[in-house]
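Changelog-linked ticket: 3-hydroxy-3-methylglutaryl-coenzyme A example.
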Amino acid sequence: MSRAGIDAIEIWTGKLQLDLPRTFAPVKGSDPQKYLKGIGIEYSSLPDVYEDIVTMGANAAKQLLDKEELAPADIGRIDVATESSFDNSKPVSTYIAGCLESVYESNFTHANKGERKFACLSGTQAIDDAYNWIQAGRHRGKPALVIATDTALYERGDPGEATQGAGAIAMLIDEDPDIVSISHSQGYGSADETDFLKPNQQFPSVDGKRSVQVYLARMREALADYESVAGKTHPDAFAAVPFHTPFPGMVRKAALLGYRHTIRNTDIEDDLASDIGTQPRRNEFDSNSEFDAEMRTYMDGLKQTEAYQEWYADRIEPTIQFARQVGNWYTGSVHIARYSALHSAATAGDSLSGEQLLVGSYGSGAEAEIHVETVQPNWKSAIESVTFAESLASRYDLSFEEYERIHDVHNAQKETEVEPFTNPDGEFIFTGWGRMNERRYEYRPRQSGNAS
Ligand code: HMG
């Protein structure tokens, strides 16, 4: 079996930003620390008037193709993962391919195209599809283009409004990848759940508090399932643990649970025993409530230990740096978390080649997936070539009143005319609807004088 995985990435953020502690909190009458510390998001990325899942996906993909000096003829398949689709038949990948074909000489006629749906999990599932396609030898030597693109918007006033985000990540999945290779082993935790769903509606119906519990339960099952095929994991075996990040506060909960699970019956559990005791085992208790109470006490102690805090600072904190700046990108979120960890290591000058990442993906409805990735020798230059930090810094900062208008612009139930806040410059834009209610796009060339 050959090595296959992520060879290159590019990221496109929605061009607007909402400052949660300084712009959103005062209007909501809430403490800015709720966003900075509790939820953990400082800015949400939002799309400008002329942006949507197609433009963001096509823009990320064009940056990727240009950087890798590839043309449509070189790509074997295009899979788009999204939960913000606007068509139940025609996949977003055909729109994105159409955009790209309008600016390159070759086309994607030969390429298999699809759209993957399983809430936020489908970005990882689309990578799986590409990985399997390569391993089956059906790829004719060509890489797959996987694009995760979403406008993660909630109903105004929903508690989820503080976790919104919009952006796309384009990933090239190939043999002998430059960034990470993907493990053959995987673990799953899957159940029929209704805590977050969009039954033919744009904005989700959400039971936020329950969704947190469902996420944790499925993630725990996926880890146990992964260990049943790959053997016991140890927290120090991984250089970073990127999780699906709807908001960094969620990862704080998942990380503690994961640490507790992976230290069980290890030297770390033994070393901590004199401080906080050993972990309660369910079979030692007569009732679940007694066990749960004991476990809560153990977790409260564990969270305070130096061992856990150091592990969290090293392996988790670097994965959530960009989520703090952009919010939830749904299908792209776990892939931003991986990028965040690698970007942070590259900036710190860490040597990661050959190190492993434990990646925890999740989608409501619900399913978690765990696999391991191995960082490849060329990872650093591949990560340093991504231009995400620059585009984040140039987002337009919305006032609250402007935020209300842009939310209405992207609300399919409303007709709102608003002038764009930014100027398109070397990018695809949405231009309106065609004869069959299809969405229409065009490329706006870069203004002369601006760097390419
Ligand atoms: P909320 O109820 O407004 O917030 O919304 P809260 O009161 O629970 O506060 C959030 C945290 O801030 C808490 O931390 C507070 O203590 C803390 P915790 O106790 O949980 O650790 N806090 C403060 N900290 C410091 N200073 C303060 C302060 N005030 C409060 N002054 C909720 C939270 C998650 C319900 C909401 O954001 C929501 O509904 N979000 C959408 C659903 C969601 O993201 N769920 C996550 C799991 S499901 C998932 O990940 C899938 C998803 O990505 C979709 C998909 O798969 O397609 C969503």
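Closing comment: Example verified and attached. The chain has a mean pLDDT of 97. The chain is about 40% helix and 20% strand.
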